[in-house]
Every structure is written in C-alpha cells, then in structure tokens.
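Late entry, evening session. Most of the bench is empty. Finally got around to the prediction I had been postponing all week. Sequence below, unchanged from the version circulated by S.P.
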Amino acid sequence: MIKRLAIALAAMLMAFAAQAEVLRMAVTTSFHNSGLSDILLPAIAEDTAIEVQLLVVGTGQAIRLGEAGDVDAILVHSRKAEEAFVEGGFGTHRREIMYNDFVVIGPRVDPADLQSAGSVRDALTRIQDAKADFVSRGDDSGTHKKELSLWGAAGLDPKTFGGWYHEVGAGMGASLNTATGLGAYTLSDRASWLNFGNRDDMALLFAGDESLNNQYAYLPVNPERHPHVNAEGAGKLEAWLTGPRAKELIDGYTINGETLFVFNAKPR
C-alpha cells in the first residue's frame, strides 16, 4: 500500500513538473535581499503553474540580460534606464508594481550630524563638507544609480571627491559590511538594512525624504526583438503581479513588524 502511494505521489510530482511553465526573470539584489521573493514565488507557482527562475544581479546587469534576450522579463528600480530599455525596443512596456524607500546608514556617532539634516540634499552636503567616509556600491545597480542622482541633485559630483569616497563595486550586503568596517555612511534600501546582521555601531540616520522613494517596475522583454522569449508567460506573470493576491502579499510583508513595500500597480 505504501509503495503504491509513493508511486502515485511521484507520478503526480512528475506530472506537475511537466506542466510547470518556466520563466526567467532578472531581478535586483535589493529585491532578492528583502526576502519578498521567498513569499511571492511559491504563490506565483501555486496560482499560475509558472516556475519563476530568478537571476539576481544589479539593475544595469539585469537590463543588459534583457537586451541580450537572456531572460523573459526584468524587475528593476531605475526609471531612466527602464525607459531607455523600452524606447530602445528591448522591452514591450514598463509597469510599476511597488515601491519602498532608500535610507542613509552611518556610524552612531554621526560625525556629519545627519540626524539634524532637513533633507537628503542637506544630509549629503553635510557628508561632503565633513569629508566623512562614504561607501558607494559603484556597481551600476539601481541603488548606485540612485545614489549618483542624489549627489547630482545636491549639486555635488563624486568624481571630485577625495579619498573619503569609497567605491566597492559590489552588492548591498558587501557595501554595508564595508561601511561597518570603515565606520562610513552609505545609501541602502530599507529592506537590506533590516535584514543586515553585522550592524555593530551602525544606525539608520536619515530617511523620509520623498526623493528617497524606490519604485520597482516590471518590463517584459520584447518578443519582436527576441522571438524565443516566453512572452505569454511574461504576460501571465504581469497579470498576477498586478492582481489582488500580489497586493495582499506585498502590502502584508514585514520585517520585525515594519512594512517594507507599498503595492501601487495601476489597472491597464
């Protein structure tokens, strides 16, 4: 009897595997580090029978994978690069899904006095004036692009900075570890900071400026450019990501009781 049940179960699993539709999606390290993908992917598989295989990279690399047709869709957070991706014919369209926010992390002693800053522009100017150590991801990720845009909006150019500005060319976890080791400031998405274990004497020192909002968008790869991509699956996934179950899971996702993402997909 047990043997027959085992055989039946194995057959069911094989049948499911045969029916499962595979979709390759490039996502940012910040999205993956948030832990939200661990909540969404099983629900996607349950509701759509799509097995989403993630390629976890920075936004710049995710876009290059989409341009090469190595993935079926991308989920990234750099609007200017996303719009260029669509305008270049590599993506069919851009669909906003959710947002969270960036925060400025630094040593608790706060040598640049960021806790008194009235805006992110003020905070960055204080860091520059104090020549306080700052760690940049320097990896062409969405977070790196955002950091550069914030310096630019403050009228500051990192190319002119001295030895206090450190580009690590690595992901968020490595950047936070480097900042901790140096006692330096850095820009992080909130989820990565909340999941970061090696805090030592580091703290969240500045947040809340509207310009720190971090919008994530979904972009299907254009099948006219790459006929082999799973365009049908990308459409099914988009419908799910913009639907009521995704809203419930995204809005309900917390770390230590703190809500991380806000669902803001609009009907088409």
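Two things to note before I forget:
The two ends are 52 Å apart (CA to CA).
The first strand starts at residue 21 and ends at 28.
Will write this up properly tomorrow.
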